[in-house]
Specification:
Blueprint (H helix, E strand, L loop, with lengths): L1 H6 L4 E5 L8 H7 L11 H21 L5 E5 L2 H9 L5 H9 L1 H10 L8 H4 L4
């Protein structure tokens, strides 16, 4: 598909990697035992996404040259970090829920705030 886009004249394309499938909430729920305290990522399923991403990055690197840029967007590592360190992301999640239009603007500018004040997320008016 990337090669087809290149043949059509594109000079840049972005490709998003696979997430850690075993950490998607529905997968955790379906593959976990009934005890809520034991719900964890399914490592064997997540490793499939990790392996795929490694191969994808190597393939995309071969396509990248001065006339055609290929940008790989990693979502695997940030999602793993969210699962392992959820307290780091509470403010960001609240901010996203309460300020969807601001989130869209920040996404377009690629400039997420490094520290969001709790007062910004205290209410969703």
């Amino acid at each position: 598909m990337v090669q087809d886009i290149r043949k059509e004249g594109a000079r840049m394309v972005g490709v998003v990697g696979q997430p850690p499938i075993g950490c998607v909430p529905v997968v955790i729920t379906v593959t976990s035992v009934n005890d809520d305290s034991q719900q964890r990522c399914n490592e064997s399923l997540s490793s499939v996404g990790f392996d795929y991403n490694q191969k994808l990055k190597k393939m995309l690197k071969k396509m990248d040259d001065s006339k055609f840029r290929v940008i790989y967007a990693d979502i695997y590592d940030p999602m793993i970090d969210m699962v392992k360190n959820p307290s780091k992301y509470v403010k960001l999640i609240l901010f996203m829920l309460c300020n969807p239009s601001t989130l869209l603007a920040l996404t377009i500018q690629n400039s997420f705030p490094s520290d969001i004040e709790v007062s910004q997320t205290a209410s969703c008016d």
